[in-house]
Design brief:
Layout lengths: L2 H13 L13 E6 L5 H9 L6 E3 L5 H12 L5 E4 L10 H15 L22 E7 H14 L5 E8 L4 H8 L23 H10 L7 H17 L8 H10 L7 E3 L2
Parallel strand pairs: 1-4, 1-5, 2-3, 3-4, 5-6
Helix pairs in contact: 1-2, 1-8, 1-9
Length: 263
């Protein structure tokens, strides 16, 4: 899988908020799983860099922060939360970690309405939904998978597994004192809704790509929204195959083994 593919996918996932999806308002999320030092954080930060306050990149998070962000999410001022070091959530009391996890699960799916410390009898609450992009080391994934499978976190996210094809690429860049170029074109937020123009054939192909994922409604809907965004972005006749080519390349990271990431 090319690094540019992963950047395109994350950018399209952020912009999926603008896809005509009233039937499926769930935002879903993407988790990047790789060994330590494999550029997860760099890729996430680069993908979100162009979208400023609407795509918040956070080094850590707690329930109080999520509650403060709720109104901004409801109003559409914040559409994506990116957590390059998702495992930090679990570097605290297990009950606290579980509470944060529960709020994030709600945000990507049914919607977050009340924090755990608020009175559930209050009326007139709005549901806050946003995309969550996380990065974690593979050992964190292995440690928590069974619990995530049981509590439903797994079925709310697309899980992408990769490792650098050339482990020395970062050392080479430092040796040559030359920054790695990872940028892709990040389009502006669209002025109007993006059409859900994924064909039946394309939809069936996406289902095949996700055969090893826990393909509940939320991640499958996100895959279709991502493709709709890519079709909106690459709308010239000469680019007609580009969206599905990107999805196919991304699908190599959705299986039972880590794919190689090329820069």
């Amino acid at each position: 899988m090319k690094a540019s593919t992963l950047l395109e996918i994350m950018i399209a996932a952020h912009l999926s908020a603008f896809v005509d999806g009233t039937e499926f308002p769930e935002r879903g999320g993407i988790m990047l799983i790789a060994p330590p030092g494999q550029m997860k954080s760099t890729l996430i930060k680069n993908a979100m860099a162009a979208y400023g306050p609407q795509a918040l990149v956070l080094s850590d998070i707690n329930v109080e922060t999520l509650n403060r962000l709720k109104s901004s999410i409801v109003r559409g001022h914040v559409r994506t939360l990116a957590l390059p070091a998702f495992e930090k959530i679990y570097e605290r009391n297990p009950q606290t970690s579980s509470n944060i996890e529960g709020h994030l699960k709600a945000m990507v799916d049914e919607g977050f309405s009340l924090a755990s410390f608020e009175d559930s009898r209050m009326l007139g609450q709005s549901e806050a939904r946003c995309l969550v992009i996380g990065g974690m080391v593979d050992n964190c994934y292995k440690r928590h998978f069974s619990a995530w499978k049981e509590n439903g976190l797994v079925r709310r996210f697309i899980w992408s597994f990769f490792k650098l094809e050339d482990d020395s690429v970062l050392t080479k860049a430092i040796h040559e004192w030359k920054r790695l170029e990872l940028e892709v074109r990040a389009p502006f937020h669209p002025a109007k809704q993006i059409k859900m123009n994924v064909t039946e054939q394309e939809s069936n192909e996406l289902r095949k790509y996700m055969v090893h994922q826990d393909t509940e409604a939320t991640p499958y809907a996100l895959m279709k929204k991502i493709l709709a965004v890519l079709k909106w972005k690459f709308n010239r006749a000469e680019d007609i195959k580009q969206p599905m080519n990107i999805m196919k390349d991304f699908s190599t990271s959705l299986g039972t083994k880590m794919t190689n990431l090329t820069l």
